[in-house]
Structures are given as structure tokens and as C-alpha cells.
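== Item description ==
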Amino acid sequence: MRIPRALLLGFFLSTPAGAQIMVEPSSTVGTRALQIETSLTHSRKETLRSWSTPTLVRLGIGEALELRAESDLWVREASGANTHTGVADLSVGLKWTATVGQPGLSLLLHTNLPTGSHQWQREGVHPSLRGILEWNLAAGAHLGIMPGVERSGMVDGVETTGFLGLALGKGWGKRFRTFLELELYHIAGSGTGGNTGNWNAGGTYLLG
């Protein structure tokens, strides 16, 4: 049986430099559908400039359930005369659409695996649980909220942190959309790094 396929391209601007959470739609791709989402991101903080190619592969194993694999893939950082290039860690998981309508609700269970280059490899395995709430607004706009929690097992102990994403997007036809996003990707006490976040803006285009 032929598997439906789609390729989604995106471009993003992020400041300051940091991890991206990307508040995604609450829907799944559908039974036997394969979708590949890839993008180019650039961020900077003072003299540090970063580039990466976040990529997400989604395979539907039911109307409300999908398998997922994602990574920033190629990563490059430059600060003055120092430049580092390599491959980021891989994250695998599941997405389940619990409800459709207003709002749509989905749950994502992911695990980050230490498979990347030394410069970007995180210590240990990092399971995370995220929820997505999405409202469709007037004129093709939509609002998304994504709270979550991540548990990190490291040599010096276990750390649990929260994160939160807020996104406002708008569709410009069936293929192109733009968005503005606020990400708090590390919510914790001052003893474990405090709160860290950034703004993102960008767009996506569906090729087929």
C-alpha cells in the first residue's frame, strides 16, 4: 500500500541563542502517512552565532497516534575565530491526539538519546512529557500552548525541569504559514540554572 508523504520546509529566527521547543499543531499525520519537517535556524547572543537544521520525521500508526524521530541534525557554532560543527542528539517518541475541536489536545512522550557529537551531546537519557492545546481563531490564525516537564538522569543526580511554549500563527493559503513564539525552555530554581527562554519568529511551506 502506498504511504502518503509530505515535506515541510521552514525558516526561523531566534534570539537569544538557545534550544528550540517549537509549539506544533495538536493534530497527528494520520494512518500510514509519512511526513518530514525540516528547517534552517539561526540565532545569536553577543558574539556567539549558531546555525542548525531541526528535522522531525512523523509516521502515522493510527488516526490518533504517530511515531516520531527528531534532531537538530547539523549544528554549527561560531564565536570570534572559534568554530565548531557537528551532529546533535536524536530524540524518539510518540504523539497521541486526545481530542479534536476547540481546543485540540495532544500528548507527546519523547526520550532524548546521547547520540550526537561531543560538543552537543547531552549527558544521559532525558525523557519528557509535553501537552499541546490549540485553538483555531478567526482569519486563519491559531493559538498554541505547550507546557511540559523533562527528567534528566546525570552522574551527579536527577534533575526535573519544566518548560512552556506559547505560539501565535497564521495561515496564508493552504501551504504557507508564519508564526511568533515565546519559549521558556528551562524552568527551574536558581540552584539548577533558573529560568531561560527566547523569542522565535518564522514560517513554514508545505512542498507536497
Q: What stands out?
A: The mean pLDDT is 84. The chain is about 0% helix and 65% strand. The chain has one domain: 5-206.
